[in-house]
Write a structure and sequence with these properties.
By secondary structure, this protein is mainly α. It contains 8 helices and 4 strands, in the order H-E-E-H-H-H-H-H-H-E-E-H. The longest helix is centred in the C-terminal third of the chain and has 18 residues.
């Protein structure tokens, strides 16, 4: 409910000029605007308690028996995969890319990760994010919820201009897009 309301507010600039059409769920069904991305693709703010609570509500709908609509990961692996983003922020577990590799990531990958365009199904995955071993569902779920809450409690000002693991300093919007888009993509993968 809150997500749809947010999207309708964001899209009102397109909608009132009859450039953007929303379906009954509040998602864009078509848009004739030349500035589709900037006018229609704003993502919910993961730094707000309302959005954080909604995402955690979606996570709480998952069970160990949840199955993916696409992809190879099981639900526990998917939760562990989502935790990697937060490990790169809060833990010193993953080596930072240096030199040429960091340059390549900034030039070729950054905009796909921090932009507003949704991820495609079965897209390429960085090696650190590939989870092939079995994981404990409850442990990964609890870790993910704790990471999301910590991020929301620290707030967007904490992240403004903060150095990311792979892409250099990011804006609040880029941090938000990176966190929210990844969560939304994989929770949608499991139908929640």
């Amino acid at each position: 409910m809150h997500r749809n309301l947010y999207l309708i507010i964001v899209h009102s600039s397109c909608y009132k000029h009859k450039k953007c059409r929303l379906d009954l769920t509040g998602y864009i069904s078509s848009c004739e605007s030349e500035n589709y991305v900037t006018l229609c693709m704003a993502l919910p703010n993961i730094f707000t308690s309302e959005v954080t609570d909604a995402v955690i509500g979606r996570i709480n709908k998952l069970t160990p028996a949840s199955t993916p609509l696409w992809g190879k990961m099981n639900v526990s692996q998917m939760l562990a995969h989502l935790n990697v983003s937060y490990e790169m922020v809060y833990e010193d577990k993953h080596p930072k890319p240096k030199g040429f590799m960091k340059f390549i990531l900034k030039m070729l990958v950054k905009n796909k990760v921090v932009g507003e365009t949704p991820y495609k199904h079965n897209g390429p995955t960085a090696p650190a994010f590939i989870i092939t071993d079995e994981r404990d569902f409850q442990a990964e779920k609890s870790r993910l919820i704790a990471h999301i809450k910590k991020t929301q409690e620290l707030g967007e000002k904490h992240f403004d201009g903060k150095e990311s693991h792979s892409f250099g300093p990011l804006t609040i919007t880029e941090w938000n897009n990176m966190f929210y888009k990844h969560l939304d993509h994989h929770l949608g993968q499991f139908g929640v």
